[in-house]
Design brief:
single chain; 304 residues; alpha/beta; Spore Coat Polysaccharide Biosynthesis Protein SpsA, Chain A; 7-stranded mixed sheet; 12% strand
């Protein structure tokens, strides 16, 4: 065991949580390497049809099994719940496909164990010379910019699954998103909860036999929609109210135009009038939605 590994294990209980789906070719390596650096390894087998769960269990990992494939976010939720039951000082999450190097676990845990951060992200873009596929890099960068806009943070890699969490984060966070949107949802919830987020550089391995089980386009759309949904729930007046006011402003302009034409010609220009009516309806619906959601969100926050 490395000196770093010994230092980590001198602290409180450390658990590693690994979401896995059909990873029988790599799960053994990940579990064995991870077990050297933590006190307990927990694998969530998300409805695999291969030997993922059996291999992980035989190698000493605790296995949580989903009867069917429910998605990355659901696997993380099960792992967070189990970690809360155990009550560790810190938890680290990593992928089961060998993309992440378990030897870097101490690097992620160090800021948490020293009390410098509550959530630590292993970033692929901080001082890394690894070559990421162009389409993936563009997608991750776009999602990260959207997350930073929503969170008012300057994170470089909002989609990294290699993370460390302190006990306060473990107690606070349970992802509700079933898919890959859980990665950004966790960061949004951490920010709302006043948790400290920081990043450390990691290296990534893109030479696995099967780098992804999900279509990258579907992945990107899922994450974007999830982020937009959470942004709308956090700031409903801004998210719905602003376009509502814009729509009503457009409606006023077209209503004035409609009445001017009618005053001059005694005729109603159908196209102009329809735009005015449509913009009015859209504006009123958006403003109504903004107020209703704002009230609901306020009530929920007061009940916590």
């Amino acid at each position: 065991m490395t000196a770093e590994g010994n230092e980590v294990k001198k602290r409180g209980l450390i658990v590693a949580c690994i979401p896995a789906y059909n990873e029988e070719k790599s799960i053994a390596r990940v579990v064995l390497q991870t077990a050297k650096l933590v006190d307990r390894v927990i694998v969530c087998d998300d409805g695999s049809s291969d030997m993922t769960a059996e291999i992980a269990g035989r190698l000493g990992a605790e296995v949580i099994r989903h009867e069917r494939n429910m998605g990355y976010g659901s696997a993380l939720a099960s792992l967070f719940r189990r970690a809360r039951e155990i009550g560790p000082e810190a938890m680290v999450t990593l992928d089961a496909d060998c993309q992440h190097n378990p030897a870097e676990i101490p690097k992620l845990l160090e800021p948490v164990l020293k009390g410098k951060a509550d959530v630590v992200i292993g970033s692929r873009f901080l001082g890394s010379d690894e070559v990421m596929p162009g389409y993936r890099k563009a997608g991750v960068k776009a999602i990260t910019r959207l997350t930073n806009f929503a969170n008012h943070e300057e994170i470089s890699d909002a989609q990294s699954g290699f993370r460390a969490y302190g006990n306060s984060a473990i107690q606070l966070i349970t992802p509700a998103e079933q898919g890959m949107g859980a990665s950004t949802e966790i960061l949004l919830k951490a920010k709302d909860g006043g948790l400290r987020i920081m990043e450390v550089p990691i290296k990534i391995n893109y030479e696995m036999e099967r780098p992804s089980t999900q279509n990258p386009i579907y992945h990107g759309v899922d994450v974007v929609l999830s982020t937009v949904k959470h942004l709308s729930m956090r700031h409903p007046l801004l998210f719905y109210g602003t376009p509502g006011l814009v729509a009503l402003s457009v409606a006023i302009i077209f209503w004035i135009w409609t009445f001017q034409i009618f005053a001059e010609t005694r005729q109603v220009v159908t196209n102009v009038a329809l735009v005015a009516i449509g913009a009015t309806l859209v504006g009123l619906m958006l403003l109504t939605t903004a107020v209703i959601l704002w009230v609901l969100v306020s009530v929920v926050r007061e009940m916590r």
